[in-house]
TrEMBL record:
Record Pfam families: Sugar_tr (PF00083)
Protein's UniProt keywords contain Thylakoid: no
Membrane topology qualifier: Multi-pass membrane protein
Gene Ontology cellular component list: apical plasma membrane; basolateral plasma membrane
The keyword Transport is annotated on this UniProt entry: yes
GO BP annotations, alphabetical order: monoatomic ion transport
Cellular compartment(s): Apical cell membrane; Basolateral cell membrane
InterPro entries attached to this UniProt entry: MFS_dom, MFS_sugar_transport-like, MFS_trans_sf
Organism expressing this protein natively: Sclerurus mexicanus
GO MF entry, a single one: prostaglandin transmembrane transporter activity
Recorded catalytic activity of this chain's protein: 3',5'-cyclic GMP(in) = 3',5'-cyclic GMP(out); 2-oxoglutarate(in) = 2-oxoglutarate(out); GMP(in) = GMP(out); prostaglandin E2(out) = prostaglandin E2(in)
Keywords: Cell membrane, Ion transport, Membrane, Transmembrane, Transmembrane helix, Transport
Protein name: Solute carrier family 22 member 7
Entries under Gene3D superfamilies matching the protein: MFS general substrate transporter like domains
Length: 519
């Protein structure tokens, strides 16, 4: 007897499964509010050098004070990181007579003045992470994703060893603790450390939520479960825009996006441990108790599977031993799956975060851009719900990645003057990118056996977060060649999409329980 047969005995997909999905969607909403928080936490408003002894210019307007104190860019805007060593009063007569003498221009000596019309306070304005310190500002995103990368390794192994629910609860508690410590940071060093630890904690939530839900649903509803979970990610995307719009001070914004974890902790009480995992580990009494509860909630009073039958299932699988990440590469088919999924996950994450952390492509303010990015994702996921069931997981995964790369590549050759066309292509690329991310979560959870599923998700998440950490840094390559970042994103997406064709199809297949099911 397979676990899918047990689920049919308990009523298949009923009220019990709906309760689990609703509760597990709460932490799913919270994830993008942290993963994309850098867009607002470290946003840099327009700024210029602070002007000393400004009270001496009482007869001048603010615009005139800036004109004699700050050099201008070719487009007429004031430079952010330079100032005149002495006031240039002759510019009041003719502002076009910008001096070519570089000796009278110096770096900011007295700090900066920021435009607070959109952003009251960010880490950039609090610790002056601009100009020469701009790298530290970008590094906060990298620190966070380094934490997520480390957490993927830790929680992937621990959730296969000690259970899904236990590790999910630990992740949520740690997320609250480190999230609140981040909000209370009094120095950049403290923020860097606490954001890294927050990334470690949130990685557990990212890894465990979907597999735990998938292990309680039947074959017919696996796609629905994966797509629904992904849609709640997009809802979190939109809620982040709302939260950031309402809370303009970075300390309180961190509190606002961390607080919902407390609700998830309370609601997790209603979610049982994975019965698949319990059976695979030989803990049949607990599994039987959860299956009885499932049958009662689904109004199946005729459930008659005994603990002894579950014991035989556990014995057949011989899954009581411990497994670690090296087990993913010991057998030939599993080794091929692990290598290919690693490449695919890197490409998906690299292209997704590369696009998501660039909020200037629509010519809108950053709040509206963030909201639009979230809205764009939902139609893409609805379409994927149909496609993954019609054309299969493998084809869907490969072509969404390839098309993401082609859209990025198309904008390299489309002239800058065709702004409307470039915007449409960029929106299509964002949609394909999200479709690829939606598919890869569902696909990967179906490829690995139950006894190694969390190890597999931990390994792929580790590789994905490397992509997420590198994605924002690639923008710095434009100093080498203006189009090099886009060429890099395009190449990685197309190559990883091609690798996806090497993976096996999982459409309408039972979830594998042991390694022998894979081989």
């Amino acid at each position: 007897m397979k676990f899918e047969d047990l689920l049919l005995e308990t009523g298949g997909f009923g009220r019990f499964q709906i309760l689990i999905l609703v509760v597990l969607c709460l932490p799913r909403i919270n994830l993008p509010m942290h993963f994309l928080l850098h867009n607002f936490l470290a946003a840099t408003p327009s700024h210029h050098c602070a002007i000393p002894h400004q009270e001496a210019f009482v007869n001048l307007t603010m615009e005139e004070v800036l004109l004699i104190s700050i050099p201008q860019e070719p487009d007429g805007t004031f430079k952010s990181c330079e100032m005149f060593s002495q006031p240039q009063f002759h510019l009041l007569l003719n502002s076009s007579l910008q001096s070519e003498n570089k000796s009278i221009i110096q770096r900011c000596q007295h700090g900066w003045v920021y435009d607070h019309s959109q952003l009251t306070s960010t880490i950039s304005t609090q610790w002056d992470l601009v100009c020469e310190q701009r790298g530290l500002n970008q590094a906060t995103a990298t620190f966070f994703f380094i934490g997520v990368t480390m957490g993927a390794v830790v929680f992937g192994y621990l959730s296969d060893r000690f259970g899904r629910k236990t590790m999910l609860l630990l992740s949520l508690v740690c997320s609250v603790v480190f999230g609140m410590l981040s909000a209370a940071s009094t120095s950049y060093s403290m923020l860097a450390v606490t954001r890294t630890l927050t990334g470690v904690a949130l990685s557990g939530i990212s890894l465990i939520v979907l597999p735990l839900a998938m292990e309680w649903v039947d074959i017919q509803h696996r796609t629905f479960t994966g797509i629904l979970s992904s849609i709640f990610w997009s809802i979190g995307n939109m809620l982040l825009a709302l939260a950031a719009y309402l809370v303009r001070e970075w300390h309180w914004l961190l509190v606002a996006v961390t607080g919902p974890c407390l609700l998830s902790i309370v609601c997790l009480w209603w979610v049982p441990e994975s019965a698949r995992w319990l059976i695979a580990k030989g803990k049949v009494k607990q599994a039987h108790r959860h299956l009885l509860r499932c049958a009662r909630m689904n109004r199946r009073k005729d459930f008659a599977v005994s603990p002894e039958a579950l014991t035989r299932m556990a014995t057949d699988k011989k899954a009581g031993g411990s497994y670690f990440y090296i087990s993913l590469f010991r057998t030939p088919v599993l080794r091929k799956i692990s290598l290919c999924t690693g490449v695919v996950w890197f490409g998906v994450s690299f292209s997704y975060y590369g696009m998501s952390m660039n909020l200037t492509g629509f010519g809108l303010n950053i709040y509206l851009s963030q909201f639009v990015f979230g809205v764009i994702e939902i139609p893409a996921k609805m379409i994927m719900y149909v496609l993954v069931n019609r054309v299969g997981r493998r084809q869907s995964q490969a072509w969404t990645l390839i098309l993401t790369g082609l859209c990025i590549g198309a904008n390299i050759v489309i002239p800058k003057s065709f702004t409307s066309l470039r915007s449409v292509v960029a929106i299509m690329g964002k949609g394909f990118s999200e479709a690829a991310f939606t598919t890869v979560y569902l696909y990967t959870s179906e490829l690995y056996p139950t006894i190694l599923r969390q190890n597999g998700m931990g390994y792929t998440s580790f590789v994905a977060r490397l992509g997420g950490a590198l994605a924002p840094l690639v923008f710095l390559l434009d100093e080498v060649w203006r189009s090099l970042p886009e060429v890099t994103y395009c190449s990685v997406a197309v190559c990883s999409g091609t690798v996806a064709f090497l993976l096996p199809e999982t459409l309408n297949m039972c979830l594998p329980e042991g390694i022998e099911d894979i081989e």
